[in-house]
Amino acid sequence: MNSLPALFTAASLLLVALLPVVTLKQEPKIAFALKRDGQYQVYVMDADGRHQTRLTTNEFQERFPVWAPDRSKILYGSQRGGGWEIWVMNADGSNPVRLTRNIEAKSPRSWSPDGQRIYFESDRTGNSEIYSTRVDGTQLTNLTNNSLDDGSPGLSPDGSRIVFESQRDGNREIYVMRSDGSQQRRLTNSPADERSPSWSPDGRRIAFTSTRDGNREIYVMQQDGRRQTRLTNDSAQDDIAVWSPDGSRIAFQSVRGENYDIEVMRLDGSHRTRLTTAPRYDGHISWSPDSKSLAFISGRDGFDAVFVVRVDGRKTTRLTTQASLDPAWTR
Q: Taking a C-beta distance cutoff of 8 angstroms, is the pair 54, 37 a contact?
């Protein structure tokens, strides 16, 4: 007689086990630096600018937030120890931990895909070098280790390689190396400056800026340096290429006269669209996770603020009303 309830219990457990697991999708967030109380501090907000929440609280500048791949932590630069050092905290601002000492590193930083290591640029030795450290601050390693400047490191999507710029050949060229610093080799070879390399989301191509044709233009090449192709070709100065997460477009800064604007184009340079036309600086681009919008900084209202523009240019929205810098969208 007692077997019937047990049978129902077993059936119920089996039914629950067969039900699909529902995972709530996290809404995208934007981390940024806001100057509300005298110094820039790291904040986070919703993609529409609501629920602005302060994460760091001290009398020193805190800037340059970078989300961990799983959104659980945020890297940032802090001056609380004197010079700029790298810190990490939980995404809610708790448990801030200093990762570097005597590094002077507020420059580009990348997380490894597993979130265990970071890569950054530092001039602690008198010239710029590329370093790596574990996220607990151990195993600090100089990856480039030469007497001439190496900088702008970008980790490949699979975490196996780093693309960077170097002056070791007399002018700036694009190089690539393994993520442990081995197998360093040059990808470009031009008497002009080649700078600001960035990987495509699939890791097959690298965008970069070159002056080989007289002014700054955006180029793209295969990961091994072959098929170097110019994408922009006009009198404007074009640089800082940023790939959309879906790999379909490249956004970049374009300078006409003294004014920076933001433009976007297809991967072959076609369908070039100017998204901003304000008579003040527009730049520091961060793509939304769905590749439909761009967060950026604009000085159009007399101070730097965070704005968002749709990739078709039809709608631009200001998200902050006080001095703001360094927008970084979650992935």
A: no
